[in-house]
Amino acid sequence: MFRRIKNRILRYLVIAIYFVIVLVCAIQLNFLWLFGYSPTKKDIIMPSVNISTELYTADSVLIGRYFDEDRNPIPFDSIPKTVINALIATEDVRFYSHNGVDFLGLGSGIVSTLKGDKRGASTITQQLAKNLYRTRYNKAGGLLTRLPVAGLVVTKFKEWMTAYKLEQRYTKNQILEMYLNTVSFSNNAYGIETAAKRYFSKGANQLNQNEAAVLIGMLKGTTLYNPIRNPEKSFDRKNTVLSQMHKGGFLKKEEYDALVKEKIILNTNNQDVNAGGDSYLRTAVAKWLEKWSEENNYDIYTDGLKIYTTINSKLQKHAEEAVAKQMAELQQRLNNTWDGQEPWRDLSGKVIPNFLENLAKKTPYYEFLSKKYANTPDSINFFLNKKKKMEVYNWKDKGKIEKEMSTMDSLKYYAMMLNAGMMSMDPYSGEIKAWVGGIDHQYFKYDHVMQAKRQAGSTFKPFVYLAALESGMSPCDKITDKPVTIKIDKGDSVEVWEPKNADWNFSYREMTLRHAMARSINSVTVQLTDMVTPAKVVDAAQRCGITSKLNPVASVGLGPNDVSVFEMVNGYSTMMNHGERVTPVLVSKIEDHDGNVIATFQAERKQVVDKQDAWLMTYMLRGGMEEPRGTSQGLWEWDLFDKENEIGGKTGTSSEYVDGWYMGVTKDLVTGIWVGCDERSIHFKNSHTGEGSRTALPIFGVFLESVYKDKQLGYTQGKFPESTVEITKSYKCETPRYSDPEPEQSDSTNIDEQTDEGLIGPEEESTEGATEHNNNGGSVSENIGALEQSSST
What we know:
This protein is of the alpha+beta class and about 800 residues long. It has 32 helices and 24 strands.
């Protein structure tokens, strides 16, 4: 075919053109999978860029980010001229003169390389092609790329082709904008805006000439010229950039001479950047949006969304500070309780054998040692007990401290650590206003609001009284506080259960339902459960919002079932919201990167409790403050009762003071708080130190006092809402104040408990059961996995 062309030069030229056309087609089609993936026309029109998603509170405070690549693109007119000039002078001085490939620069680069001065010849457009479409990575590689020389030729040719396509599709300024928004600046900072905030705590449009030179200088080697890791090399590279700018006519001699002497001054304390770290809230929102993301084909880690939560930033701060203040004191109290003793005990008070050893076996470090020193337990024990420097969480220093500890020491240290969960919610809208998943997310990943489920203790009793009201009773109906005998038919036998009050005493007095609930009398709760049936109690709780499995047994009202703080807040909110259950809402709306609202979220509503009974339950909950010896009266310690303010609440403590609870209700908020160790076998010894009124209730008191004092929040003191329906049941029944002293009433359910398998007394619960019971609570071995992994190195 080519022989018809008589002129040899012309023939060779036509052959070369033909060869190029065939090569281009083959590369574009990835013929026989030889060349790998090439960007399509659609890719060029809509380049794929991962953009970080930002997480905001309801009052527009940035509290977190989600990203695979932390990137916040900005328009060209927000990029300062100093950055543009530094980039062009250093990376592609002929940028405005070529069409994607600078053949003149390529030839000059080859000559320089042959002379021993290695110099790259890739244009900014080629580098953009490589960054956007990863032409040298992943699926871009075909079979030919496995051959050293052929692979280099193919990938380079594809970069030329892609660069040419980009130049045809975009203006020079658009190419510069895309390049500076996609390039990596190390430390997981992608794009000039994120880099400016990461290294200098300012926006890109605020960068001075020296700072711009530092960042552009990093592009030659983001690790080698990182100003944090290698400040001296970064300084030298910065001056090289300034030199190129001077040569390119972008800097006058006097400017250059002054700038090369300036030191690099970093500022890495930017709060917006630090908000990108993980937190309980950030994790909770990600979990919350899993289903929405899947159904709507969004990826919160790459799509550059703006997620607005229902959280109030100030309320959140008050909640976090209240938890931190009280938990530091409680931790010291627990440490003093077990000073010099082993705290892991079964229900009979005996030390659990091999407790720490069993915890150690669950750690990644133990797994590592077991593989390395198989069949040599002495070596494993040696390294488990070998002292080394560790960073551990410490309340006193409000963060990490460095200590000489062994793995076994660290397990003991963390097993003794108290944790907490707290959630506050608007009961009418369903909006969650504060969420504190634990004491410190860096060290304790397990969320104690949603994930952890613990025995509710006496905080579950209101559902018994609700079932009683629904059966026709009123708050003024009376029941005698007396011993109770419950017979349970087991088919081939009958078991007898005789629950006791927390103080093991009975007053033998008649008391109204309101007074009994306020005093948290176990005997009355059990009698009511027997009267209305356990199944009715379970039904009432589930209708209100408890979704965990509840065993309909005689002891159900004493709170032996494991539930979450999230569920309990929802359940109490139903009572406060006139019997209408609202599904709690954590996210209010989501915007795309351009600011368009793509999703809004509102609570689902359902009337599940009669309005009269619901209002009477809020009146009953106030009894904890208003009835004689009510278990909430510790709240008088705080300044909470101006303007006839009304507060309802219920304390709760599980057996052996393992779990301390407080559920607090005001006219505006329902707040739930849990306190305890993740390892259930470690707990306080007595009611004076460990019941909910002395662990969880003070957190509520501190929190609510700070909320009322913060006038900008707008939460005021006042009375509960009036009933929206006529109240036909009697409820205004004054409780006589007896002159004879009674033992102080505890809220603990520290008694034999009944499960679906029978009755369990303290002497019957085994060590194995105590350890196994921890499955819903975030074990120590899980929480310090990162620490043990670092130990293995």
